[in-house]
Every structure is written in structure tokens, then in C-alpha cells.
Amino acid sequence: MKIFEAVLLISGCIFFMAGAAFAESVHAPEGGNYPANEILSGKDSNKNFLSEFAATDPEFVELFENFALHETVSQSKLDDRTRYMAVLSVLLGCQGVDNFKAVLPYALDADLTPAEIKEVIYQAAAYLGIGRVYPFLRAANEIFKSRNISLPLPGASMTTPENRIEKGNQAQIDIFGEGMRNFQNSGSEETRHINRWLAGNCFGDYYTRKGLNLKEREMITFCFIAAQGGCEPQLTAHAKGNMNIGNDKAFLIDVVSQCLPYIGYPRSLNAITCINKAAEAK
Known about the structure:
Blueprint (H helix, E strand, L loop, with lengths): L1 H24 L32 H18 L4 H15 L2 H13 L4 H15 L1 H17 L17 H13 L15 H16 L6 H15 L3 H13 L4 H15 L1 H17 L1
Helix pairs in contact: 1-12, 2-11, 3-4, 3-5, 3-9, 3-11, 4-6, 5-6, 5-8, 5-9, 7-8, 9-10, 10-12, 11-12
């Protein structure tokens, strides 16, 4: 336990030192703050999804937006589409449904398609459970209808009941390597059915669908797990899976950095620790 606490402390110090170094390189206007109506956020510099609090909490809104929508975005190499995909995923993971509803219209404006957003939500069911995904599905449908987006969207399934386990296991192999071959048949008799479900349901039903590619699906899974916290072994495994298919360490750290304002420092620092462990194991 002492070693684990020391690792977290060291990781935290490194993260905050890096943040301080970056802060020195970002020059705010005279007075030390960025004007609230000059926030950098992709194609539209006036995105203000906290506007409902502008009259009651103006100082907080300015502080948060200066950081979340200017300083962190300025640090990133992610395009708008990827950033919003990651942010929506962590909002699902941390159960920020009100913030999800506020951000979703901007994600659509940043060229995330309705089909891609639905795929993010659908895949979250495997990692968060329908109890936590249900309100997000409802929220997305309400926003889509308000924008005259016709529902249901075209089907995206690429498997059948007969081949979903085989296709899902192939996705596991593609991400985690040959050691996953026939994973559905592994494990003790008492738990083998769960391994079969992982191959057929988690990977066969979701990862094989149209709408998102494998790298995007593995990135959003990393985001779901990082944001809900308490699943560090799985987070480290999926950090390694991301790296295996081309989402390298620098990319994952960028993703976490962009999501930090939405999930906070503790879970972000834990995610950085898991990324470092995965990188060391490669």
C-alpha cells in the first residue's frame, strides 16, 4: 500500500509540474484572465455550455471556461471530433448527464455524426451497464429530435447470432494479441460463461458494428473506464490495447488531458498512472 501511495504521489507531482510549466507558456491578457466570449474551442470560439450559470456564478464560469475551453484545448493535438468523442465518453463514465446534454449539440457541430454518437452510447452499455446508460440514450434522442434527426438511424450490426462469438473473439485478438484466441472457452467452469459473454456480447455485439473504427472504439472504452474509477486493472489492460492498435502513449495522455476538466484530477492522475504502467509493460 505504501508503494502504491508513493507511485500516486509521484505521478501527481509530475502531472502538476507539467501543468505549471505549461501555464508559464500560456500568456493571458492583461489582468490574467481570458474574456469569457473569446474561449478557444474548435471551429466556434464562443461555445459556452455553462451560460445558464453566467448570472448566478459568473466568476466560476469564467475560471472553468478559461481552463477547460481555452488552456486545455490549446495544449492538445486532438481534432475537434476526437476531443468531443472523448468528452462525451467520460461524461457517460462519470454520469454527467446534464453536462452531456449541454455538450452534445457542440459535438454535432464539430462533425460527430448522430450514428457515431449513438455508437458511443451503445458501447457504453457493456462497460457501464444499462442502468447508467439509460438516461444518456434518452437525452440523445431528445436532442436529435429537436434537430429533426430522423430516428431510428440505419442499422449498423455486422454479426449474426451464429458468428458473434467468433467475430468478437477476433476483435479481442486484434486488440490484445494471439493470447486471446479462443478466450470464450477459457476459465473455470463456474465463470466460463462470462468469458463467452465478453467475446460474444462486449466485443461481438459492439466492437464489430459500423460507425466507429477499432481505434475509436478502444479509445472510448478507455474513457468509460477511466471516468468511472475503481477499475484500474481493466484500465491498464485497455491502455495497452490502445497502444497495440496505434493509440500511443502521447495520444492517450492527450485524451486524458482534454477530459480532466470533466472528471477531475484524481481519476485523471490514476489514468496517467495506468498509461505509464501499460507503456512500461510493452
